[in-house]
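Retro notes - structure team

What went well: the batch runner handled both jobs without manual restarts.
What didn't: labels got mixed up in the shared folder, which is why I'm recording both outputs here explicitly, each with its sequence directly above its C-alpha cells.

Job 1
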Amino acid sequence: MTNYLHKNDLPDGIDFGKSVAVDTETQGLSLVRDKLCLVQLSSGDGDAHIVQMDRSTYDAPKLKALMADTAVEKIFHFARFDLAILKRDLGVDVTPVFCTKVASGLVRTYTDSHGLKNLCQELIGVNLSKQQQSSDWAADNLTQEQIDYAASDVLYLHQLQRILTARLMREGRMDLARACFDFLPARADLDLGGWDGVDIFSHSMRRPKD
C-alpha cells in the first residue's frame, strides 16, 4: 500500500482501469469561498494517488481528462459536494458516478449514520481515523499524517461499492440508485447556482432554519 503525492497534475502512465475512487480536500465546505486543494484517486489496488492542485491556475489536463472520461466510472462518498467543486475549479462535468453515501441511504435504512467512517466500520471492519479532517489543506508542504488521511478516503470505496451494490440488488433498488447517481451532476449545478439550501421539490420551497 503506497500513497503517491503529485504536484499540479497526474503523471503520465497511470491507468485506473474502468473505475476510480475519487475524493477532494478543500479549504472548507463553502462552494462560494473555499478552494479545491487536493484530489485523491485510487483504482482499488491499495495505492492512492494524491494531486496537490496549483490553485492559481488549476491547469491539470490529465486529471481533467480522467474526470471527464465517460468510459471510467467515478466512485465518491458524498459525490454532491465533490462534483460541484470539481466543476467549479476544474471546469469538468464528472460522469458516470457511483455515490456510496446515496447507496447507503437507500439500503441501510436501519440507521441514520451514513458517513464514510460508519460505512467502513460496519461493512468492512476498518476504523478510519478522522484526526486530520480539520486540517490546512492549502499548506505548501503536507505532513505525512495529512497524506495518509487524504488517501484513506479513497482506499476503501471500491470495497464499499461492491457491498452496497449487492444490497441494492437484493432490495430491488439498483435502478433507483442509478437514477439518483445520474441526477447528482444536476444537484451539483443547483448547489453552484445558489439552490444549495433549498429543496426545489418541496411544496413550500422554504430554506431550512438554522
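Job 2
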Amino acid sequence: MRLIIDQGNSTTKLYTATSSEIVDCVVSDNEDMLEYVRQRIANTPFEAAIYSSVRREYDKHLINVMSRKIPHIVCMGNTTHLPIGIEYRTPHTLGHDRIAAAVGAWTQQPGRPLLVVDAGTAITYDLVSAQGKFMGGNIAAGVSMRLRALHEHTGRLPLVATDGELPLLGYDTETAIRAGALQGAAYELEGYITACEAEYPELLVFLTGGDAERLATIIKRSIFVDKNLVPKGLNRILEYNVEV
C-alpha cells in the first residue's frame, strides 16, 4: 500500500492507494494531520509515501514519524523527477497540484494533447502536449471566489451558495449571481477548449476539483471528469521516483 498526502492551506487530504487505484480518502485539519498519520501508519504496512504541500515548507516532525515506518518517502519539490517534461519558464513557482493533475491526466491518456482543468478555489487551465510536456497554463478565480467577491466588493449583493437553481438567465438576484458565476466559469472553460482545439485538434479535456461535477453538467463537450486526478498523479510520481 501507498500513502499519499496532499496538504492544502487549511486541510489535508490523505489517500491510501495501490499501484493502480485510489482506495480511500480522509480529509483532516492540518492541526490533526500528524496524529492521523501516526495512527494510520501504525495499523497499515505502507511500502512508500509521497508528501505534497502548497506551503512548500514540509513538516519535518511528520517526515520523521513516517520514516520510522515507511521505507520510501518522496517530498514533492523542484528536484523531484517527473514522468512529464516542464516547459514553464518558472518551474519553481508551479504549484504541485497543477503538476500532479497534469501527470494524472497524462498517465491515463499518453500521446494526446491534454487540457487539464482544476476547478477549485482557483480554476487552473494547463496544457500538456502530445509529447508529454507541460506547456503552461492560466489561473482564474474559482466559482466560490467569484461569489464571495461579488458579496464583499459591492454594497448590497448577498453571498450566494453554489447549490441551487441555475437558469440560463437569473430571474431574481440570487439566481442571477449564481448563474453569473457558474455559467460564466463554464463559458470561460468552453472558450479555452475551443481555442486549444484550434491549435491541437486531437485535444482531450480532463476536469477535476470541487466544482468539476457541477460545471460538467453545464458544458456541452465530451470531457473526462476525475475527482482523483491529483492523487493519481502523485501516485504516479511516487512510482516514478521509487521502485515499488
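One thing worth noting from job 2: The chain has seven helices and eleven strands.
We'll revisit the folder naming next retro.
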